[in-house]
Amino acid sequence: MTALAHAALDQLTELLGSRCLTDAESAARYGVDWTKVWAPAPCAVVLPETAEEVQQIVEIANEHGLPLVPSGGRTGLSAAAVAADGELVVAFDRMNKILDFNEYDRAVTVQPGVVTQQLQEFAEQQGLFYPVDFASTGSSQIGGNINTNAGGIKVIRYGMTRDWISGLKVVTGRGDLLDLNKGLIKNATGYDLRHLFIGSEGTLGFVVEATVRLTRAPRDLTALVLGAPGFREVMKVLHAFQKDIDLTAFEFFSDKAMGHVLQHGVAAPFDTECPFYCLLEFEQLSEQVGERAMEIFEHCVEQGWVLDGVMSQSLGQLRQLWQLRERISESIAPHTPYKNDISVTISKVPDFVEDVDKVVQDAYPDFEIVWFGHIGDGNMHLNILKPADLAKEEFFQRCGEVSKWVFEIVARYNGSISAEHGVGMTKKPYLGYSRSEEDIDAMKAIKAVFDPNNIMNPGKLFDV
């Protein structure tokens, strides 16, 4: 540790006392996310409790040239929250309060360390609903959700995190506290700086407070799981249902994904084995809606787009059907999956999947490919499973070659190399496949305005 870092830690200890942690256990706990590729090596961890403390931390960091890395629930998959090079980790676990709620505005103001599930449960207690939902809601934090513009399983109906943030307070890399948009629905007063910080991965500043919109809770949710003979038929099913029914979710997964889930004790939805499956959900607000859903299902069967299917008849059955989709990641985890989170416009999905599948299978026929994702918004998760007899280091090296080929296809389809997991360090070398040099130069210029000394999560998203 440098003399400057020691001096900074002396000031931080004076400011925060026992909330400035320098032990190895804390470094290992707070310095990583779910990527597990880089070893944690922060110089220390601090746990502020107020926005003013965050400002003081940033001022000390600027004085000593100490880089800062934000840490939320540490559930990220892009290494955006990894401190691998002596940075100071700013963990928001202690800033976990719900500060205010207004029933007329349907808005709740929270600190960044509030866990996503905590916000969902609070909304439910008010008779309302926070719709951004994904596998890590029990541990991810709102600040992290905002920094990555988290999506999940309800995007087809409710959009991304960005669509639910009506106000932000942020501490910039200069140490300024900005109060952005102030919870307003309509505000035509120039640049909406709030949206620069959403999805910025902590590279411009740190979220210290957020005003989040809520909505009415969905009623009488019903799910259908359908088996299809091919991916193009899955897309035809999506189109058929969307013409008449407002879907709250439309997920897909391959037969290989289904196989792994069934091995983990989830019951098969029906006996017919199919190459692809889709799970769609909607509000059955009347008998007519349910009857129309069955008519569309029967039409899909007649057209040969669906081989078999089942519809939930109770809340318990709804939850059971969702297990088929929600437990995929858990079931493939023992196989050391190499994950890619990619997206294209919905109309291009079938051709895109075919192109990617062919490239990977041709190059590595011994690799098992597991597809699943939020097909209703064009977001697919490509998972390549490690053969049991292949060393992890060699597997990831070979998958790195795969990523380049996949991202070349992404670029050809004008897609995104990261639909919802962010860029961080894992996708940073490939950012040029989705963003032009002019785009990246503009982002660097914006960063220089808010973070002139490059102390805010340096080395993430891009290098300056």
UniProtKB/TrEMBL annotation:
UniProt cross-references to PROSITE patterns, sorted A to Z: FAD_PCMH
Domain called FAD-binding PCMH-type: residue spans: 38-217
Keywords: FAD, Flavoprotein, Metal-binding, Oxidoreductase, Zinc
Entry EC number(s): 1.1.99.39
Record InterPro entries: FAD-bd_oxidored_4_C, FAD-bd_PCMH, FAD-bd_PCMH-like_sf, FAD-bd_PCMH_sub2, FAD-linked_Oxase-like_C, FAD-oxidored/transferase_4, Oxid_FAD_bind_N, Vanillyl_alc_oxidase_C-sub2
PANTHER family assigned to the protein according to its UniProt record, in alphabetical order: D-2-HYDROXYGLUTARATE DEHYDROGENASE, MITOCHONDRIAL (PTHR43716:SF1)
Identification of the protein by name: D-2-hydroxyglutarate dehydrogenase
Organism: Alloalcanivorax marinus
